[in-house]
Amino acid sequence: MSVLRLAVQKKGRLCEPSLALIKACGIDFNSRAQQLTAPAYNFPLEFFFLRDDDIPGYVHDGVADIGIVGRNEVEEKGFPLRIVENLGFAACRLAIAVPAAFDYRGLEDLEGKTIATSYPHILKGYLEEQAVKADIHEISGSVEIAPAIGLTDAICDLVSSGSTLLHNNLKEVETILHSTAVLTAAENLTEEKTAILDKLLVRIRAVQRAAKHKYILLNAPDSKLADIVRILPGMKSPTIMPLAEKGWSSLHSVVHEDDFWNIVEQLDQLGAQGILVTPIEKIMY
Ligand code: PRT
Ligand code: ZN
Question: With a 6 A CB cut-off, is 87 part of the ligand 1 pocket?
C-alpha cells in the first residue's frame, strides 16, 4: 500500500505549526525523535524532516511527494510544483528596504544600486519586470546588516513585524511578494498517492475552517428572534430551542471570527443574554 511522503521543516518557524496542523488532523506520530524520517501511526503518511530551502527541490525530485514550506521558497526555487493549499501561518512579505536616511521616491531610485538578498531569483524577476537595473548580491544570512557594513545600498528580505528593519535603521519601500506556508505537491503523483492527498486535504480544510469560526450560544426574548437570526445565519440556519422560561429561547449558531465582535455588539443591543462562545475543532461541509 502507498504511503504519502510529507516534507516538513526540521527546525525553525515552520516546524511546530506544520506538525500542529497534522496533529489537529487526527494523525498520530512521534515527533520527539526528529530523525530524518518518521512514520504516522494511523494514516498512510511518512514525515521527512528537512531544511526549508531543500523542500521544494526534494518534492520536485520525487524524494518527497508533498511539502509544507513558505510560498517564498517555492517561488525562489522556481520548480514547477503545485500549490494545493494556503496554510495561513508563517505570514510574511518579501520586501525591499533602504537606509532610513535614503530619500526614496520610487523604484527609479534603485537604478544602478546594489541590493543584498537571499532571494536572488525572485528579486531578479521583479527588477526585470519593473525595468530597473540594479546589482544583486546574494548572501545567505544576516541580510539586514549589509547596508550598515557598506556591502550594499539596499536589501531585499522577509519582513513580518518590521522590527528587524527598525533595529537596523532601514525602511521598507517596496513589497515584492506576500507569503504564508503552503502545502505543495509534485505534479505527477500516482493515483494512489493523489487519493491519500485528497483525504489529507479534506482533514486540513476541516481544521482550517474550524479555526476561523466560533460556536455561539445565547438566550434571547422570542420577540427578537427574527432580528437575531438575520445577523446570525450560521451554516444553514441557527438552531432555536425554547427555554423553560416562557417567552425566551436558546439560539445556537456558528460565526466567522472576522465578524465576531461586530455581531456580539449587535446581539447585546437586541437584548441577548448569557452569550457563550466556544472554539470548534472541525467543520465538515
Ligand atoms: O534551517 P532552515 O533553512 O530550515 O530555516 P531558515 O532559518 O531558513 O528559516 P526560518 O525558520 O527562519 O523561516 C522559515 C520560513 O518562515 C520562511 O521561509 C518564511 O516562509 C517564514 N517566515 C515568516 C519568516 C519570517 N516570517 C521572518 N520574519 N522567515 C524569516 N523571517 C526573518 C527575516 O528573514 C528577518 O531576518 O525574520 C526577520 C524579520 O522579522 P521581523 O519580525 O523583525 O520583521
Ligand atoms: Zn532556510
Answer: no
Ligand 1 lined by 51 (C-beta under 6 Å): yes
Beta strand spans in 40-150 (E): 45-50, 66-70, 82-86, 92-99, 114-117, 135-138
Whether residue 73 has its Cβ less than 6 Å from ligand 1 = yes
Q: Which residues pair with 29 in a beta bridge?
A: 40
Virtual CA dihedral for 120, 171, 105, 95, nearest 10 degrees?
30
Name residue, grid cell 519593473: 130
CATH of the domain at 245: 3.30.70.120
Residues 69 and 184 sit within 8 Å (Cβ to Cβ): yes
Tens of pLDDT, residues 224-241: 999 999 998 788 889 999
| CB-count burial class (<10 Å; 0-12, 13-18, 19+) for 16 | middle
Residues 230 and 205 in one domain: no
**Residues 40, 44, 48, 52, CA torsion sign:** negative
pTM: 0.93
Do residue 86 and residue 99 come from a single domain? no
Residues facing residue 4 across a β-bridge: 45
The sign of the CA dihedral 39, 40, 46, 48 is negative
**Residue of 93, 144, 160, 182 to test ligand 1 pocket, by largest number of atoms within 8 Å of CB:** 160
Asked if the structure places residue 262 within a domain, the reply is yes
- The grid coordinates listed for 160 are 513580518
256: containing domain: 213-279
Q: Residue 133: which residues within 8 A CB-CB, separation 6 or more? A: 111, 112, 127
pLDDT in tens, 90-144: 999 999 999 999 999 999 999 999 999 999 999 999 999 999 999 999 999 999 9
98 falls within a domain: yes
Give me 138's grid cell. 546574494
Query: Has residue 121 been placed in a domain?
Result: yes
